[in-house]
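name: query_chain
kind: protein
chains: 1
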Amino acid sequence: MPTFVFIYFPTSLFFAQRFFDNPKYHNNRVKFCKENPNIIHSISNAFLIKGNLFFRINRSGLSPGSPSYIYNLKSGKLIDVTRVVPDAGNGYLPIAADKIQTTDFENSNFLASDGESVFTAYSSQFMFSVKKATVGKSPKYDSVLKQYFTTGNSKSNPVIVQVKPKEFF
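structure:
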């Protein structure tokens, strides 16, 4: 049986009723979107894992990226994934948008789920820039990442990243 989750947002964050088919808005849509970049036009990339709903809010703004969140169904807590801090346990590699000059995650986001994990992808250029930026933290990589960083380079193929969430609420 499917699980239904209802999340309510203020109506002020959405387009006016019939915005897309009302002739009154026809010539003003682009201007309106530029002036109101936080208007939500859709929610996507939704995955339910262990009582946590991963989802992306797509906004009308023309800047790249849309915020992603994790909502815990039991506690009602909401986490902005850009605030999830990498640590020694994952070699200081970020799972989401970070502060190291990238739009990889903002553009791709969590792309799929197997019911236990969510998956995203990063360019090798991004992976090697993070490795370089975290060298002072002496990250410990598993054998797969050691081999990747030894044999690959910033022009290698993109990397699929599996994120298996812990019980964090």
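note: The helical segments are 29-35, 104-108, 124-133, 143-151.
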